[in-house]
Amino acid sequence: MRKILMFLMALALAFTFAVPAFALENIFGGYWRTRAYIQQDFTGDDSGDLDLTQTTTRTRLYYTAKFNENFQFVNKFEMDAVFGGQDRKFDIDGDGSKEVIGSSYGNIGADGVSVEVKNSYADMTFDKTNVKLGVQGTTICRGFIFDDDFAGTVVTYKASDTLSIPLMWIKANEGGQGEDANDYDVDYYAVYPTVNLGKATVKPLLMWTTSSDASSFAGDSTIDKWNVYYLGADVDANVGPASVWFTGIYEFGTIKGAGTADDTDVGAYLLGLGASTDVDKVSVHGQIFYASGQDPDEEDITAFFVPAGQSYYWSEIMGYGIFDDMDVSNNSPADQISDIMALNLGAAFKATDKLTLNADLWYAQLAEDDANGNTDLGMEIDLGLSYSVLDNVTLDVVAAYLVAGDSTTEEVSNDENPMEMGVQLSFSF
Question: What is the 3-state secondary structure (H, E, C) of the chain?
Fold first, then answer.
């Protein structure tokens, strides 16, 4: 990883000296945060297996070489560390197992393999068409479908002031070298236009995820040919004093070998609705979302899912929230929204120009009964404050408590309600 970073830095310096100063604008930026937090009883009992008290830090550094209005080279790097040092673990395969990929630089001596290349892509504009090629990030359907970095291409055609049409290619898995190796490739293709209707914006979606053999990517040797589609739309509108949003997605297609020798049909859906409004110094907001689960009486796949890249943060304990480093409460889908119904009502009060107080109430349950016939995940209370310490420097304090439902505390001898407390200092430039 150090070699990669040194190469990219050398490349940036080469650009700087090779191109005349008047033809190149160097743009630097970044983000930094340090957080300390406590998580207790996330297992739903008093075993302490997921209890965690730690301090972490993250630095992101951005460098863009802007040659002119039509061409720029964008790079973003990330460095993460746990105070006192800890191996960096990530769910690389998306199967829930975390693998060690480098040591933290937060230990004594501070040396560690902790530099990650987050983005590196060319941004080019040709008349009405913009092309982003390389490793970049994007969000599709608020994260219900996708919110992550990827290697691929986004080509956006601006048809008019009210219509732009992005075409996306996301490379999810490369099969490698060898006969029939391409069969193991996994690709996402999407068209995701933006239509501006004045007081409303509509973004219809059609996405196709495909592979001739998805067994390696899915980590399941029984899975073979894969063709799954997503048809949906985002709607954002101003209705009087309120801002309202809606997302609806229908998932369909076939997966060969998903538990059977024949094609298994996929039929699932997700619905989300939210609104917010300001009344003097108070902002009131709420949302509800539902994602179908697996119907035990159906042979078809009825649970809404995305192979990889889905990420929608919601409550602090059940849905990651601010402190997203490790775990969520037992049996919650976290940011991988599937088999769940969640309801939220909250408010933010701007006490002063620098201080904002926040409160949220969440209720969640599974869409389908779990193995014990339970669905209730619980009622969560999230409290927080955000204080502007300096220009661009923000202090966040959060306290969260989950009144755990039967599905959170199932099969435990001593029920306990999960809680979380933490503080974060951050700034961007």
Answer: CHHHHHHHHHHHHHHHHHCCHHHCEEEEEEEEEEEEEEEECCCCECCCCCCEEEEEEEEEEEEEEEEECCEEEEEEEEEEEECCCCEEEECCCCCCCCEEEEECCCCCCCCCCCEEEEEEEEEEEECCEEEEEEEEEEEEHHHCCEEEEEEEEEEEEEEECCEEEEEEEEEEECCCCCCCHHHHCEEEEEECCEEECCCEEEEEEEEEEEECCCHHHHCCCCCCCEEEEEEEEEEEEEECCEEEEEEEEEEEEEEECCCCCCEEEEEEEEEEEEEEEEECCEEEEEEEEEECCCCCCCCCECCCCCCCCCCCCCCCCCCCCCCCCCCCCCCCCCCCCCCEEEEEEEEEEECCCCEEEEEEEEEEECCCCCCCCCCEEEEEEEEEEEEEEECCEEEEEEEEEEEECHHHHCCCCCECCCEEEEEEEEEEC
